[in-house]
Write a structure and sequence with these properties.
718 residues; alpha/beta; 7-stranded mixed beta sheet; 3-stranded antiparallel beta sheet; 19 strands
């Protein structure tokens, strides 16, 4: 009885040893034992006992040192402790109590490790230290001038236990993404593959015909005897199954994150590799890849992580066995500071561990991708087809879908512009919400976003006490300042500390120049934005981010309109001449298109601002013409900015001059040509409309990439 109470109360640690077959006492049946029934098992069993005792003693020594550090904190620097505030001091007191319980055996080493994750979050993030076996052994936490080393219980991995943890983790993924799974529309993609010519005369002839149509500077990457072909992927799952390492590219809102989540949902329901979906926006400066993965995989659910620390502790084992499919979302959202260094670390990590059988999927905005991960299979998400749009609208609006579909199907340039927007999954969901509320749509993306955010705020108002609510325009102007400052200081999609966000938010805003400013308390604005699902906050409200990058860009666009063009030129300027363009050397066996010019990271915000400007307000576009004519053209096409005819002509003329200037970098000239194609190239002459319908394409008797002859539906075009 005393023994049983001692074990139950964890007064001491028991290592059961099975020396010979016997009836095992009830209170020991669920415990692990060392099997020493056979003489051959004796050395291994003895080693296991010694190791367990040694590990436990070493861990308790680490706990004792950590307790001494905590208790010596105030004596070390009394002023520091006073400056921490009562909340931090309370965290330290709780940490001391938790350590004492761990030392006395009141809680197990596993329970301590769970508690340590919570302590690390409350005391402040720090670096994780790994031992020679790549296991985490401590968290280093810096509080002012004091460094604390928070010990982590060493982990012994039991295969059967890991299977249980893996099952629980798979279920966690399925549960998190299950709500959206029934509404997922399968996205398609395109990629390139290289076929060796060999003795195949058709492939050689096809490559030769292509070379005849291209100037020398445009075909520097086409090698003799090779044929670069576009490959259609009906689903993105095809890409992951076919290629071990994929960089998934697409426009803003095209569904990259949703596709990654759906991939995790599908793989989690299968046997085989473990999917690990992580946000690259949390890959902080000076953080190692291992640290980033462990923090995201093992971090608390309240922080948006996976709380699978048992699996994260075995990261090295999983990588070595090739059992993981790592899903890294939003390369373009990594914080600006040290971006190149971390992109290189990511590339090296993929190189190292893909050879063991692990698979990798990384997402990024197509125009923000500068071939940082060159060598990964480049797959571009394709816009939704008319059939996919119709299917999605039917699922979301089963009773009234036809009304919206008729609105999108109307002919005319403005309607065609809306249909083009609807090919973007995020904008299609925005359209559905706006149409369901108003029975009509706005004229462009910016207007749709404005009405969409008003609807979100209106829904939140229904559950908000009247005295706690702020007018929508007050919230908008305060969030606009925050969005602009976050973008300027940290980049898009980045998880920023709430205290830092509040530090740049205004205490009051002036929504009307004819009236005095109105109070906009940052805490109140953030609470309202979180309830409206405009921003999301971690469980302890210590950090935040905008729910979608387009939401951040929309709000930042409002603030951009308040700043004079002369203050924005530095943000718009990019390397234009060949001599200023960062050198890019095509890697061996890389046949992807030339990367676009390095982005300014303000493109989408500027285009959104152009769409918000009143008709015939030319100031923004006029300022862009000389600084960045490609972006000026995109504002006319994608905004679309409604400017005077002479301003539009000026943009077209500047684009023509850019294309014809041999000193301008080839990548910039290609981008200028793309935009000019949308605006209308005056060298071509008058364009005539081609009605929508089905057309025959392909050739049954042509080259392989021309077969088969089939019909394809095309919308009206010029």
């Amino acid at each position: 009885m005393a023994l049983h109470k001692g074990i139950a109360g964890r007064k001491f640690k028991v290592i059961p040893i099975l020396k010979e077959n016997c009836k095992i006492p009830g209170f020991l049946r669920d415990r692990k034992y060392v099997d020493m029934r056979l003489a051959a098992d004796y050395p291994a069993g003895l080693e296991k006992i010694v190791r367990k005792i040694r590990v436990s003693l070493e861990f308790k020594d680490s706990l004792q040192r950590f307790q001494d550090d905590l208790q010596g904190l105030e004596a070390h620097d009394p002023k520091l402790t006073r400056e921490l505030g009562t909340e931090k001091v309370g965290d330290i007191e709780r940490a001391i109590s938790m350590v004492q319980r761990a030392i006395s055996g009141e809680i197990s080493e596993r329970e301590w490790t769970q508690a340590a994750e919570q302590l690390r979050t409350s005391l402040g993030k720090g670096d994780v230290t790994f031992d020679q076996h790549n296991q985490r052994v401590k968290h280093q936490i810096n509080i002012g001038t004091v460094t604390l080393n928070l010990p982590i219980a060493p982990t012994e991995f039991d295969p059967e236990e890991l299977i249980e943890f893996e099952t629980a983790f798979r279920q966690r993924i399925r549960k998190r993404f299950s709500e959206d799974a029934p509404y997922y529309i399968e996205l398609s993609g395109e990629t390139t593959e290289v076929n060796s010519g060999g003795d195949g005369s058709q492939a050689l002839r096809s490559a030769r015909r292509r070379r005849q149509r291209l100037g020398a500077e445009y075909r520097e990457w086409i090698q003799e005897g090779r044929d670069v072909v576009r490959v259609k992927l009906n689903t993105l799952r095809e890409a992951v199954d076919k290629y071990p390492c994929v960089i998934l590219l697409g426009d803003p809102g095209c569904g990259k994150t949703t596709a990654l989540q759906q991939m995790a949902y599908e793989v989690a329901g299968e046997d085989g590799r473990l999917p690990v979906p992580l946000r690259l926006s949390e890959f902080a400066p000076k953080m190692s890849m291992e640290d980033f993965i462990v923090n995201g995989w093992g971090g608390a659910l309240t922080g948006g992580h996976w709380n699978a620390f048992e699996l994260a502790d075995n990261l090295a084992g999983y990588l070595a066995s090739g059992k993981l499919i790592l899903l890294f979302d939003a390369l373009n959202e990594m914080p600006h500071e040290g971006y190149g260094e971390r992109a290189c670390a990511l590339r090296n990590f993929i190189n190292t561990w893909s050879s063991r059988g692990n698979r990798f999927l990384v997402t990024c905005r197509v125009l923000d991708y500068g071939e940082e991960l060159s060598g990964l299979q480049r797959v571009e998400i394709q816009p939704l087809s008319r059939e996919q749009i119709e299917d999605f609208v039917k699922r979301e609006l089963p009773e009234t879908w036809d009304d919206l579909w008729q609105e999108l199907s109307k002919e005319g340039e403005s309607r065609r512009s809306l249909l083009r927007l609807a090919r973007n999954p995020y904008m299609l969901t925005v359209m559905i919400d706006v149409f369901e509320e108003d029975g009509k749509l706005g004229r462009n993306r910016a207007e749709l976003m404005r009405r969409f955010t008003e609807i979100l705020i209106g829904r939140a108002r229904e559950t908000c006490p009247p005295e706690a609510f702020l007018d929508a325009d007050v919230q908008r102007d305060a969030l606009a300042v925050m969005a602009y400052e976050i973008q300027d200081r940290a980049g898009f999609g980045t998880l920023v500390k709430t205290a830092q966000a509040k530090g740049v938010m205004p205490e009051q805003v002036q929504t009307d120049p004819n009236w005095p400013p109105i109070p906009s308390p940052p805490d109140q604005v953030l609470d309202l934005a979180a309830s409206a699902h405009i921003i999301e906050m971690t469980g302890d409200k210590s950090s935040l981010r905008f729910y979608h990058q387009l939401l951040q860009e929309y709000y930042a666009a409002w603030e951009m309109l308040k700043r004079g063009p002369d203050r924005l030129e530095k943000k718009w300027r990019w390397p234009c001449l060949e001599k200023d363009m960062p050198q890019w050397i095509r890697p061996e066996n890389n046949y992807d298109p030339l990367p676009p010019p390095p982005p300014t990271n303000w493109e989408e915000t500027t285009i959104m601002a152009a769409g918000l400007m009143p008709q015939n307000d030319d100031k923004l576009v006029q300022a862009l013409i000389e600084v960045n004519p490609v972006l000026a053209g995109r504002c006319l096409h994608e905004g679309p900015a409604e400017v005077a005819p002479e301003v539009r002509r000026s943009v077209v003329e500047r684009l023509l001059a850019t294309i014809g200037n041999p000193e301008v970098a080839l990548r910039v000239r290609i981008a200028a040509g793309d935009v000019l194609g949308y605006l209308g190239d005056p060298r071509i002459g008058e364009l005539v409309p081609v009605p929508s319908g089905k057309f025959w394409i392909g050739d049954d008797e042509g080259d392989e990439d021309e077969k088969p002859r089939h019909r394809l539906y095309l919308s009206e075009y010029q």
